[in-house]
Amino acid sequence: MFAGPFSESILKRALENQLIQIALHDIRAYTTDRHHVCDGTPYGGGGGMVMKAEPIARAVETVLAHPAGWTLPPQAAFVDLPPWNENAPAVLAADVPVILLTPQGRRFDQSVALELSQHSRLALICGRYEGVDERVRSQLVSDEISIGDFVLSGGELAAMVVVDAVTRLLPGALGDALGAHQDSHSAGTDGLLEGPHYTRPHNFRGEAVPDVLLSGHHAQVARWRREQSLLRTLERRPELLAVAAEKLSKADRDFLSAHGWGSAQEQ
Ligand SMILES: C[S@@+](CC[C@H](N)C(=O)[O-])C[C@H]1O[C@@H](n2cnc3c(N)ncnc32)[C@H](O)[C@@H]1O
Asked: Where are the domains of the chain?
């Protein structure tokens, strides 16, 4: 599942340049029974299966006891697992968040991505089926993240979303250092939406590029971009203007008022 996204574009380059390391761990490899069972029926009945706590704890604690990038050697899988105390939780490094991907977690956004990008190592746990045994949450996990109010079949896609968004924020990950800074929801746009972009041709099906972008007048271009960012945010996500309110200049406020911003709920 991970091969495609991790072998393209920015993530591929970040891996090649050793800006990041990604190690994938198959929880089944951390089972010790003959059939390598990772799931069980839920206590109390009901449909679906629940991921067992023990293989997840064994996987996370074993992996985090090793340097970043370590994976279980293939020949060790199923037979020769490193020593692990099944009766006592390992003491995990406080600065390595152990994150469960779950639709019940705090909502992932750019500020959470920025926060996670400050850590040198992250552990992401992907659930399947009905999710994981509650004791994974209570004993192992330090953070729970949801990528939105919808339910995916597994945590893998959510983990890839987190890895992508966090990697973009690492210095050197993007060719253009300004890129991530100027994106929507970022510091360079004061958390607002970014305005429109144009490239050649000048005229596409009768729609020309706005004159100001051809003027060569940097201050005017910057003001136009700011206004487009304000306008777009007002039209699509007015609640973001309230969050960014203290960063809005008088000129920003006047521009927004002239475009209908001003009702009590919008400010
Ligand atoms: C079918 S879901 C389980 C949903 C669970 N029964 C519930 O209602 O909260 C299976 C797995 O997909 C992942 N997942 C599903 N939706 C997600 C979301 N919005 N964000 C992050 N992970 C999600 C989680 O890892 C979860 O354990």
From this structure: 3-168, 185-258
